[in-house]
Amino acid sequence: MGKNVLVVDDSRIMRNIVKNTFLQIKISCEFIEASDGHEALQKLLSNKIHLVLLDWNMPKLLGIDFLKKARSLEQYKNLPIIMVTSESAKYNVIDAIDAGATDYIIKPINEKIFFQKISQFF
Fold first, then answer.
1. What are residue 20's DSSP bridge partners?
2. 91-100 LR contacts (CB < 8 Å, sep 24+)
3. In 39-95, at which residue ranges do the beta strands (DSSP E only) sit?
4. Which of 7, 15, 16, 64 is the most exposed place for a label (fewest CB within 10 A)?
5. CA angle 92, 77, 84 (to 5 degrees)
């Protein structure tokens, strides 16, 4: 059984790009999708998730706030959560890492960098 990856982005196109990047680099997994941080939190709590790929800017609950909520729950303290966002300012990266992000990928996704950052979890 493959690992479950929670792909959180308010853009369906971006979620598809992330999923297609997994196919391109030949990493097999199951995808669970959420279009905002609130929906992502519900899916995190109701599924066995092995990796979260998380956008920053979303309706209802920002990615950074999802990250803080997930890290406040004991069972998700060590869950790999990687920000995948166009927020490239240094202070955003620092805020995310301080909040508990495992890593940070800046859009547009570079396949080689994506593989380097996620392959350790598979």
1. none
2. 92/56, 95/64, 96/56, 96/64, 96/67, 99/64, 99/67, 99/68, 99/71, 100/67, 100/68, 100/70, 100/71
3. 51-54, 81-85
4. 16
5. 35
Q: Is 70 exposed, middle or buried (0-12, 13-18, 19+ CB in 10 A)?
A: buried
Task: Determine contact, residues 22/29, Cβ cutoff 8 Å.
Answer: yes
Which CATH number is correct for 3-121, 3.40.50.1000, 2.60.40.10, 3.40.50.2300, 3.40.50.150? 3.40.50.2300
Asked whether residue 1 carries a pLDDT value surpassing 80, the answer given is: no
Contact yes or no for 117/27 (Cβ under 8 A): no
Q: pLDDT tens-digit profile of 66-83?
A: 999 999 999 999 999 999
Task: Check if the beta carbon of residue 122 is closer than 8 Å to that of residue 87.
Answer: no
